[in-house]
Specification:
By secondary structure, this protein is mostly helical. The protein is about 60% helix and about 5% strand. It folds into 2 domains: about 1-35, no CATH class; about 40-135, Rossmann fold (3-Layer(aba) Sandwich), CATH 3.40.50.2000. The protein has a 3-stranded parallel β-sheet, sandwiched between helices. Strand 2 (about 65), helix 4 and strand 3 form a beta-alpha-beta unit. About 15% of the residues are buried.
Length: about 140
Amino acid sequence: MSARERDRAQLEMTLNPRYRWLGEVSPLRVRGILSRSRLFVISSRMEGGANALGEAIVAGLPVLASRISGSIGILGDDYPGYFEAGDTTELARLMVQCETDPEFLAEITTRCAELIPLFDPARERASWASLIDELEVA
């Protein structure tokens, strides 16, 4: 995070009581934070958020995500919780919808819960082993 971005985050904390920037935190602390959260927003403009997205899904959180290929590859093209990267107005609208529309929140919660098996370590090991076997044969 650049000094400019850090300053913006700190300013936002003074203006918005619902925003809290934590900076870099350990994986253990991340899991603790996720376990106490009710919604996860991944606002990436480019790839790199897939690990965070997977952690949120495994934690059972509904997700709002910027419409980038990494998120689409995990959540699917028709996932209802997308907003265009950088479109804070649309993100705010979706956040309000999560707070006021129980059916919408239930839908994205269910859609994310259905993806939890994708992140099973045994499944991932088996997939890697299969790929390696396939490459060795080729």
